[in-house]
Amino acid sequence: MTILYGGDYNPEQWPEDTWQDDWDKLKLAKVNSATINVFSWALLEPREGQFSFDKLDRIVKLLEDNNIKIVMATSTGALPNWMTRKYPEVTRVDTYGIRQIGGKRENACPNSPMFQHLSNELVEKIAKRYSNVKNITHWHISNEYGGYCYCDNCAVAFRKWLKKEYNNDLNEVNTAWGTNVWSHTYNSWNEINPPMKIGDVSEDGKPVLSGLDLAYRRFQSDSLLNNFKKERDIIRKYDDRPITTNLMGTQKDLDYFKWAKEMDIVSWDNYPAFDTPAGLTAMEHDLMRGLKQKPFMLMEQTPNQTNWQVINRLKAPNQMRMYSYQAMAHGADTIQFFQLKQARNGSEKFHSALISHSNSTDTRTFKELEQLGNELQSLPTDIVDSTNNSEVGIIFDWNNYWGLEDATGPIKQDYVQQVYDYYKEFYDRHIGVDMISKETDFKKYKLIIAPNMYINSESLTKRIEYYVSDGGVFVTNYMSGIVDKDDNVSLGGYPGLLRKVMGIKIDETDALPDDVQNQLIFKDKNIGSGSLLCDLIQPDTATSLAHYGKNVFYTDYSALTKNEFGKGTAYYAGSRLDKTAINYFLTDILQRTQIKSDSNNIGVEMIQRESSNNKFEFIINTDSKEKVINNPYPQTNDLLTHQQIGEEIHLSGYDVLILQIKK
Ligand code: GLA
Ligand code: ZN
């Protein structure tokens, strides 16, 4: 299999007599793929029911003539003006009840029957017409799904969705959401409104009925997923090739684990800002791989600067190449960009591209792209589809993400950052991690971390108990096990149903101002501190590993615990641990699990992918500074320089090596 190297191509923004020149240039960089037809609805259907595929036919022919593979999009991510004018219901209504008038993109109401009808009609035509194009490798549905709509059509569809979820029983809804609070009881389904700021949600985004809000988030994610599924099924009637849509890492709106089940392959768009830690990007790649536990496509990144971030810094020499191999190390089998040719107009004209405004191949960026293109072509073919095997799983869950955001009190939390607190520790120790869903088979992991597992259920509790009693090591922390799926608190003390396996009970949790940290005392010695929240832990069967320092009234309570449970161990951290504390805490856990850890060479990633014949060790300097490290596999071959590497590896800023280890 070839590694797709290319990206979004929008020739419709350019005179046709410039098109071939694009490819004369792009082929110098060994570009072999183009993603087309992402936003062309107004061209394909200039008036309702009048279709015109001439231009798209010519674009397809251009690519075929140049022997370029095609990722064919469906163009349903932006609406033509005739449609928003004639059928205002296709646009979204915002949280203040204001109907949008059209424009922008990725903003169709997912529950508009008219949008569904018109988009499906278009997709049917595209699928039928282009399913015989040999160069198509993938289908790309819509673009970066997300966002919410609160229109009447959505309200109607929501009530229907609720009836299914709650056995057609309004009492069940009232009970599940605790509607007696503030006189919110529903006496008819029609009284249920979407949670809006002109309704049940406060100006700062907090819902009164968090059960309602959680349900609405699930419903909107499902609604967009239905749009995806409808388009997918239409394409599938004509074509067997893989169908995807481009996801966005830790983006909040959609339950990507649920989405991935419906996608043939995961693809995603990676846009780290200049100050995004490399480890956070690594975590997002691992999450995207984790969605299907399979390699994925890097559908978009930018060769140089973006235009939409607050500060759009240039990428330093070799930084784009570094990001590309970082993606590959974590499971990407394609390297694709937004976009192949920089726009002259519109809001993205300052967004970089392979061919820049200078229209020259003699640019710093293009030369780096050329180098990368040549290197990708020379990689052994079994690197594609090779696997990442990890002993550690970190649970990521969109419902927890939403639930923690919806909760009013005890403190504002950043779910992604708190998951990253743990991920980073493994990353710095060069320990591969799988980002997993709560439904994953836990058995294959020696260690599972479930940060802020706010929402819990009886069945999940059972699976955790079974995993630990069978010898697994499980770590969780504050704000875990607090509520059920409808945001009802689990009574009897925190962490609710997890009390037994954790061997602890918590009655109270303190919330700390930003500038306050509580010292953590491990065996009379202060090692690091906790911030954000502090659970006042009462160990039951658990042993206490640390307690809080003397500056608080709850110094007698435990801050960190460890519970032997069957053949395994369950650890609980009652506070947001700083670097020193988390390091100390995990050292014990890693010893217990005998997971190989190496905290030398922070800033250099070492990640392994494996095929049936080879191991590929990616060694990546994610930093601009030079590094010298010991070679974990001396006398092996670097696939990028084709040289044997000795005992030491000298990495210049952003340098990368891929060592091939024959099995
Ligand atoms: C997103 C979109 C693209 C483009 C890029 C710019 O990922 O999918 O169409 O707007 O951002 O960074
Ligand atoms: Zn709507």
Description:
Strand 18 and strand 19 form a beta hairpin. The mean pLDDT is 98. The chain is 30% helix and 21% strand. The two termini are 21 Å apart. The chain has 663 residues and is an alpha/beta fold. The chain binds alpha-D-galactopyranose and zinc ion (ZN).
Secondary structure: elements and pairs:
Elements: E1 4-8, H1 19-26, E2 33-36, H2 41-44, H3 54-65, E3 69-73, H4 81-86, H5 113-130, E4 136-140, H6 152-165, H7 170-177, H8 210-238, E5 243-244, E6 246-247, H9 256-262, E7 267-269, H10 278-292, E8 296-300, H11 319-329, E9 332-337, H12 364-378, E10 392-395, H13 398-406, H14 415-428, E11 433-436, E12 447-450, H15 458-469, E13 473-477, H16 499-502, E14 504-511, E15 518-522, E16 525-539, E17 543-548, E18 558-565, E19 568-573, E20 575-577, H17 579-593, E21 604-610, E22 614-621, E23 627-630, E24 636-638, E25 643-645, E26 648-651, E27 656-662
Parallel strand pairs: 1-2, 1-9, 2-3, 3-4, 4-5, 6-7, 7-8, 8-9, 10-11, 10-12, 12-13, 13-19
Antiparallel strand pairs: 14-16, 15-16, 15-17, 16-20, 17-18, 18-19, 21-22, 22-27, 23-26, 24-25, 24-27
The protein binds alpha-D-galactopyranose (GLA) and zinc ion.
